[in-house]
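User: New here, any thoughts?
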Amino acid sequence: QVQLVESGGGLVQAGGSLRLSCAASGSIRSINAMGWYRQAPGKQRERVALIATSGTTNYAESVKGRFTISRDSAKNTVYLQMNSLKPEDTGVYYCNALLLVQSSMKNYWGQGTQVTVSS
């Protein structure tokens, strides 16, 4: 069974930093892209950052220059370093990964971790 387990969320003051981690485990043959999404109360889930197998990254305009996505392929783990946090960054952050499981490429989601930024 494949799982994505996130950690690192919490409460922080505006201007502070947090680092999220997401570890993929289970019968994974290979990992394609991994990324982070977030959902604020009353809003749709939005993409925050993506990282491809090649290491190419892509960020939402709202987080460029403040957030950094990285991955440790040996550990099947993706990270999101969040600096200069703003109250509008508050939400549930979800890890996402495109994984090759057996012979199928499938999309998986983590359970989410809460990030709250106080003003």
Notes: The first strand starts at residue 3 and ends at 7. The CA atoms of residues 96 and 109 lie 5 Å apart. The chain has a mean pLDDT of 95.
